[in-house]
């Protein structure tokens, strides 16, 4: 019998904040990126994202630009430090409690995020989630480029990535339960069997109200 699969968005769902933005600010703080134009452009594109209008190829090109001359091994070490200092303190305790509950009953879990995979795959083990999909970035001569490789896990592309995952993990073709905050995930919400909105944006909340999707209000500290 196919097993159920619990699928999570990452940014503003499992963590308070966006890992790509936190990473960009980390790069500026550590001196790898110029703060003025870089952060201004990143913020502008994230505003597009909030409206469901981001050009992801442009965003990846921008946010990967400070890394193009750095060896991948160095970047990966930088990511590990960023996860420890910037991401871990922002993990919702309610998310961890749910993950531990699912682990205890041997449920399969998967993160699908529109952040780049080098971030997502570094964060997933900290959360205790074995499977993670992020936007793959092409490499060249041991360095990350600013080009997306394959179908990005963004908007409709999240369905494609999930279906590709299920081809290789057919045992998880049971009911899909999806947790997200973002209007960008509406296609996957409509694909899933069950949806939980976590601190949803106004656009997603409006759709969810019509469909009677449950809403979870997670926070870093108790009210």
From TrEMBL:
It holds the Pfam family HAD. The keyword Cytoplasm does not apply. InterPro entries: HAD-like_SerB, HAD-like_sf, HAD_hydro_SerB1, HAD_sf. Keywords: Hydrolase, Magnesium, Metal-binding. The keyword Manganese does not apply. GO terms for molecular function: hydrolase activity; metal ion binding. PANTHER family: PHOSPHATASE RV3661-RELATED, PHOSPHOSERINE PHOSPHATASE. This is HAD-IB family hydrolase. It comes from Kosakonia oryzae. The lineage of its organism: Bacteria, Pseudomonadati, Pseudomonadota, Gammaproteobacteria, Enterobacterales.
């Amino acid at each position: 019998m196919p097993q159920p699969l619990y699928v999570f968005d990452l940014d503003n769902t499992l963590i308070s904040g966006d890992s790509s933005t936190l990473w960009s600010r980390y790069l500026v703080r550590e001196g790898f990126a110029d703060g003025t134009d870089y952060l201004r452009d990143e913020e502008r594109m994230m505003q597009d994202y909030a409206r469901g209008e981001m050009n992801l190829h442009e965003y990846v090109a921008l946010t990967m630009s400070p890394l193009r001359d750095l060896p991948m091994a160095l970047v990966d070490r930088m990511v590990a430090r960023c996860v420890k200092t910037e991401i871990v303190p922002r993990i919702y305790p309610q998310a961890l409690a749910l993950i531990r509950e699912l682990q205890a009953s041997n449920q399969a879990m998967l993160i699908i995020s529109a952040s780049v995979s080098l971030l997502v795959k570094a964060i997933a083990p900290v959360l205790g989630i074995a499977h993670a999909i992020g936007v793959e970035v092409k490499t060249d001569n041991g360095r990350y480029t600013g080009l997306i490789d394959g179908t990005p896990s963004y908007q409709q592309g999240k369905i494609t990535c999930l279906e590709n995952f299920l081809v290789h993990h057919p045992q998880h073709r049971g009911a899909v339960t999806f947790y997200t905050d973002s209007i960008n995930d509406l296609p996957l919400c409509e694909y899933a069997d069950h949806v939980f909105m976590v601190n949803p944006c106004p656009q997603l909340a409006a759709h969810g109200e019509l469909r009677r999707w449950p809403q979870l209000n997670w926070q870093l500290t108790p009210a």
